[in-house]
Structures are given as C-alpha cells and as structure tokens.
Amino acid sequence: MNATRSPPLLNTLTSSRRTGFNRAFAAVYTCAILALFYRHTQTLIGSKTLVSFYVTLALSVSDLILAFMWANGQAFRMRPVYRKEFPDNIEKVVNTSDLPGLDVFICTADPYKEPPMSVVNTALSVMAYDYPTDKISLYVSDDGGSAFTLFAFMEAARFAAHWLPYCRENDIAKRSPDEYFATNYSRSSQTEKIKLMYESIKMKVEHIVGKGEVSEEYITGDEERKAFRKWSSDGFSRQNHPAVIQVLLDKNKDKDITGHCLPNLVYISRQKSKTSPHHFKAGALNVLVRVSAAMTNAPVILTLDCDTYSNDPRTPLRVLCYVLDPEIQKNLAYIQFPQEFHGLNKNDIYACEHKRLYKVHQVGLDGLFGPNYLGTGCFFRRRALFGDPSTIVSPETKDLSPDFVINQPITAPSVLELAHRVAGCNYENQTKWGYKIGFRYGSLSEDYYTGYHMKCEGWRSIFCYPEKPAFLGDVPSNLLDVLGQNKRWAIGLLEVAFSRYSSITYGVKAMGLLMGLAYSYFAFWPIYAIPVTTYSFLPQLALLHGVSIFPKVSEPWFLLYMFLFLGAYGQDLLEFVIDGGTIQRWWSDQRMWMMRGLSCYLFGLTEFFLKSIGIPTEGFNVTSKVTDDEQSKRYEQGLFEFRVASPLFVTLATAALINLSSFILGLINFLNGNNGEGLLMQLVLTGLIVMNCVPIYQAMVLRSDKRKMPIKTSISAAILASVVYVVASPFSK
C-alpha cells in the first residue's frame, strides 16, 4: 500500500524566543508603573502650594500618557513570529500557465518632487519580474496630469522591449536600471548598448523637465503627438481635465526584441474637479482598482510608492507561497513586505529607517492577526477590497466585481469606455467606494486606515520578511521634509484615533484586546508630543530655579524611577540591536523621537484640533524625492539640514537653549553642593537632552555653511526661551 504523498512545503512559522521574557518583563514593569502613580497620588495630595500641585499634575498626566502608550505597545511583544517561504516549490503546486494575474499600481503626483525617471525605474523593475509577462499589468496613476510623466513612460515602453530580455538572459538581481548601472555590472557590448540607450532616455526626460515643456521634436508617432497636444507645459497643475487613459503596452500586440510578449502598461490621469473631493492617494488607488477591474481584473494587486523599486525579481513567487496555501488563503487580505531603504547614511541621522514601525512591530502583529498595511510593497487579494471574508459587497456594476471574467483585450472600445467612465471625478457619488469598497477615505493615513478596517472586518494578513529586501525606497535627506512627512502622518492617525472608528473602542470590540491596543499605539502616536514637551521643559525650568521635582538619590523612590527609565530604554535598545540595528542608529532613533515630539507631533496635534473646531489649516503636501548634490553630500557627512526658517525648528531650538542653560547652571550648583542629591535626576535628564541637541547647537552657532540654522529662527527661539523662563518665575518662590 502506497503512503499518501504530502504536498510540497510552501512556508513555515516560528515563534520568537523572546516571547516568555517579554511577558514576564511586562508583568514586572506594570507593577512599577502602578507604584509610580501611587507616588504621584501621594505627592498631589500633599502639595502645599498651587505651583507644586500643577507641576505634579503635569508630570502625572505625562506619565499617564507614557503608560498608556507603553501598554498599547506590549501587544507587539506578546506573540512575535517569524516566517520563511519556499518559492522553489511553487512550480510543484501550480503550472506556470495557471499562475494568477498580477496588477501593479504606482501613484505619482508631481513631476518636480517625484522625478519621472524615478517612477520609470520603479515600473521597469516590476515589469522585469521573474513571472510570466502575460500575467503582469502595470497601471500608473499620475494625479498631476503631467505631460512629462506621460512622455517618460512612452520612452520607458520602448526601452522595456530591450531591458526585459536583457534582465532575463543575464539573470540580473537589481532590475531598476539606475541601480543596476550604479553597481559593478558585468561589462559587454550588449550591456554598453543597453546602458547607452537608457542614458539617452534619461537625459531626454530630465532635459524636458528642466526646460519646463515637451517639444514635439522629442515625440515620435502621430498618436503620441495627439496626446501631448492636450496638455500645456504646466499640465501638472491643471484641474477639471477629462480622465486620460493611454495604453502604452498591450500584451496581445507588443513584443520585446526576442519575440516575448511585454506586460500591459497603462497610464492614467484621473479626472479631478475643485467641486468634487478627490481623497488624495486613496482616491487615486480606488480609480486604479476600478480601471484595472475594467481592463484585466487580476486577482492579486501590488501597490508601490513611485520611488520604491523591486530588489528581488522572485518576490511574486514568495507571495504565492501564502496565496496558494489552502490553510491561509480563506481569510487572507494581503501580504506586506517591510519598507526598506537605500541611501541611508551611516548613522541614519533622521531615523528614516523606522525599524520599529516597519519591522519590529509588524513581526509582533504577525503573531496576532497580521501586520498593518504600510502603503507600499503590499500584495492584496482583490477580493479583500470588496467586503468581509464571508460577504462580498457588490460594486454598482458587475463589470467591476472581483470575480468578473474579462474576455476582451484592454484596447477594446467597450473596455476603454468603461475605464474612462470609472475614472471620472463624479463616478463615486452615491456609491460605496472608499467606505465599504476599496481603499478607505477618512484619514490622510489611508494605508493605516485601510488595513485597520480590513482587520475589523475579519481579514488577516501576513508579514513577509525575507533576508534579501524585496523592495528598496528613497528617504528624505533633509530635516524639514522628514518632519513635514511625519506631521502629515500624525494628523492622519489622529483622524482615526478620535473618530467613531477609534481603535481603542471600536477596534478593541471588532478585533479583540491585543489587536485593538496595537492599532491604538499607532493611532495615538502623536500624543507623545505631550510628555516629550513636558519633560523637555518642566524639569529644566525647575532646575534653573533650584527646585527639585524628582526623588532624592537616597530615597527608595529613586530606584523605582531608575528601573522605569533603564527598563524601557534597555528593552528598546535590545529589540533594535537584535533586529540588525546598531547602537549609533538607535541613538539617532531616540533623538529623532524627541525631535518629532517637540515639532511635527506637537504641530500635528495642534493642527488636528484646530481643524476639528473648524479652523482651516494647510492641505496635503507631497514629500519631495529630489535631492541636490550639496544636500546629498551633507547628508552623507551626517550634518543636519536647517536652512529653511520653519516654525518646526523654533520649538526645537527653544528647547535646546533652555536645556543648555539649565544644564550649565544645574551643573555649577551640583558641583558647589547646592541640593545636589535632590537635583541629580533633573541634571541627568537635562544632560541627555543636551546631548541629543548637539546638531541644533552646531547649526545655530558652530556651522558657517548655507544649511545652518537661519538667524531669524535662532533669534525667535532665544526670545521664546526668555519668555518661557520669565513665565516660569513662580518656581523660585
């Protein structure tokens, strides 16, 4: 009798060995937090002056917020897991001809902040996947309606006929042309020919962007010329233009130089109107969902940022290790890859790696119901965008349903007519798009909000974290862009935290306690501004006036404070280093945590509440992906960029000045024996903040380059610091 043959192994799951330690430490740390609030209560009751009462109250509120965020963060540590995939076994499970189709979505909005050639490189890297090209369809959403971007993709379509077979024949790993030609690639006559072809296209595209117009001398073909006549040179700022859909490559007609079919490539500029909400990126993604449904309707969708290129051509096969697993696929919504970056400087001075957000926390969520949607590098099952696992929410026309079978080519008149109609600015009126179907509206952080709602509906997700990064993206290389991006995230997260779908109420009820707490950690992230601001000013002002607000070294409570401080930072450092980080990058990370709390979180929190009471605030801004040579050089040197006079820098400089003054005066008093035992904790805290503020002091005083802190900002900070000191004069009484 023959034994039953087991199916090939597609993936494995392993629990982290730190789980037991995490749970034990959480129990001990909880007891310490309770003891801290017992002391705060005693101190409040025993307050003899109004000033001491308010000081203790401010510290108590700050510690309550820190305790709340710490409790939320423990959800990530309760069951972290690690996965491994076996993509070589896919061919044993399914025939190549039966592999599911893949629709790739790339969104761009401004050709000056998101250079067209960067978007083109992202597109070419996924078009060259080790996956049947007749199964791949690439959809590019250009929310700027830019002739520059369309021109770049027309050129990319021609180049793809040479680039894809070159990648296939030479089995190259980096399939973004920019990245490949920046490496020590194997030189040959074929390679040099391809490189020359690419550099010619790149030079042509960058020239027209720099020139500010597309001359018809660059356009080949009557259809292309006709398309370009629809736009003026400032087309990216135009409103009310009709939806534009250009099929640049059709797999049924277009072949590469070896005779293989090329993937579908479709350019889309949706219709936008000042009288109709367009919902930013979420709206653009929903247009792509509908247009792709009308044209190809692939069961798997990949969403990518325009600057995030593929670093591993076998990534789709890793995804299929979960999509084709019968034990997982029923409730599976998406497979999320970590966001990883190229071009980070040695110490990652702006903490753009976001190791906790993009890796550590996602590993923890994977042991519960799966990671959150991070906005890029995510493979969705199309079905998950249409209702919960058990009930499909039907769109307004069956042609857009996830199970609808398309039997016409993408250039068929009826297909194009439907595609143009669903890309119209009024199409979503009186429909469920953005609320029950597709990517969700209601938050600037559409990625967080969409993933959150999917989990509330009963879907789960997978975190795929291979040793070789699947995708690599760009990072902002100046501080203002970093803080601006984080402020936008902060506002988007607060829009969820204080809505009727708040994760701490609705989320806990829908997903369970641990998942609700985990999502609350993200949603309430910006309220870190309150304790960070409090501990950056209050103890320092007290120190300036020689007033002790923490326990003396000889008191037993001092040991409690030391345990709370060292325990939290020690565990954080341990997780950071175990996940491959360095101590220098960890220091940069905690420094930027402080800087964000004093700037973008504080301003984001303020802007959100102003918006909540009807006071208008600034709108959505695209983060620039453009970096000049001088800026890149200083970033590589580890120098902070402060050249723009921004309110975000004023609060940072104010805190830096107050802490430096407090530390110098406190140190003098300590050395002279003036209440040194009672002021030691404040002195240590202030000293640590001063160390974190070294880049600010350098930019204010020590640097002479153009990127230093503007004099206007330094003077404003000095005046504000003086005002704060005067206002705090009751400390001396």
TrEMBL record:
The active site is at D143, D447. One of its GO terms (molecular function) is cellulose synthase (UDP-forming) activity. The chain crosses the membrane at residues 21-38, 50-71, 518-538, 558-578, 644-668, 680-702, 714-732. The keyword Manganese does not apply. InterPro entries: Cellulose_synth, Nucleotide-diphossugar_trans. GO terms for cellular component: endomembrane system; membrane. GO terms for biological process: cell wall organization; cellulose biosynthetic process. Mn(2+) binds at K281, D305. Keywords: Cell wall biogenesis/degradation, Glycosyltransferase, Membrane, Transferase, Transmembrane, Transmembrane helix. It is a multi-pass membrane protein. It comes from the Eukaryota. Its main location: membrane. Pfam families: Cellulose_synt. It is found in: Endomembrane system. UDP-alpha-D-glucose binds at K113, E114, D143. This is Cellulose synthase like G3, ARABIDOPSIS THALIANA CELLULOSE SYNTHASE-LIKE G3. It comes from Hibiscus trionum.
